[in-house]
Specification:
Distance between the termini: 22 Å
Number of domains: 1
CATH topology: Rossmann fold
Helix content: 25-40%
Structural class: alpha/beta
Strand content: 15-25%
Mean pLDDT: 84
CATH architecture: 3-Layer(aba) Sandwich
CATH class: Alpha Beta
Largest sheet: 7 strands, mixed
Length: 185
C-alpha cells in the first residue's frame, strides 16, 4: 500500500551501492517507476496478477528491466545473485482476488525472507518491508485497511520477522519509518 516514492530519502541512502533492485508484489509499478530512475544495473519486478504484469511489461521497456509473472517464492531463487549488492522491496501480499495465490497465504513475507537470507551474500542486502504496521499485534492498520477480507492468522507478527532475521543476535538493524516501511540493513 505504501509507494516507494523518493529514493533521495533513507531508502536511497541505504542502497547507494546497490546494483540490483528486486520488488515483490510489483502490481502496476507505482514504486517500480521510481526505482527505474536510479542507476541500478538490473531491476526485477514480480507479481502473480497477469493483468498487472502485462501492463508493466508494456510500460517498462528498458534493457535493465525484467518483469516476472508468478509467485515471489518461485521467482526469487532464480533471480537472486548473491555476488551483487541488492535492494529488496517486499510488498507481495493479498490485495484482491487476482493478486494472491492461496497456497502461499495472504502474506508470503516470512518465506520470502527465508529465501533471501539463505543466499551466500558477499554484501548484506538492504530489505525494505512494506506495511510494517500490519505486523504489529494491536495495529490500527487492521481496523483501517483489512476489514473482513484479510485473515490475521495468515500474516506474520513483527516478532516472527525479528526472530527470523537473527533477533537478539543483532545481525540486522531495523528502522520503522513513519512512511509505513520497515528498513532492514
Amino acid at each position: 500500500m505504501t509507494v516507494l516514492r523518493d529514493f533521495s530519502d533513507r531508502a536511497w541512502n541505504l542502497s547507494l551501492a546497490a546494483q540490483v533492485y528486486i520488488e515483490t508484489g510489483v502490481g502496476y509499478g507505482a514504486s517500480f517507476v521510481n526505482a527505474l530512475r536510479q542507476p541500478f544495473e538490473r531491476l526485477h519486478g514480480i507479481d502473480v496478477s497477469e493483468r498487472a504484469i502485462v501492463a508493466c511489461r508494456e510500460y517498462y521497456v528498458d534493457p535493465r528491466v525484467t518483469i516476472h509473472h508468478g509467485s515471489s517464492l518461485d521467482v526469487l531463487p532464480k533471480i537472486i545473485d548473491p555476488s551483487k549488492k541488492t535492494l529488496f522491496w517486499l510488498d507481495a501480499h493479498y490485495e484482491g482476488p487476482d493478486c494472491w495465490q492461496p497456497e502461499h497465504g495472504q502474506c508470503p513475507l516470512l518465506a520470502e525472507l527465508r529465501i533471501i537470507l539463505a543466499a551466500p551474500w558477499r554484501q548484506k542486502p538492504v530489505i525494505l518491508i512494506d506495511d510494517y504496521s500490519a505486523f504489529m499485534s494491536h495495529s490500527e492498520w487492521w481496523r483501517r485497511y483489512a476489514g473482513d477480507r484479510l485473515d490475521r492468522e495468515q500474516w506474520p507478527t513483527f516478532a516472527e520477522i525479528y526472530d527470523l532475521m537473527g533477533g537478539v543476535d543483532y545481525r540486522w538493524t531495523f528502522l520503522a519509518g513513519t512512511d509505513g516501511i520497515l528498513y532492514c540493513w
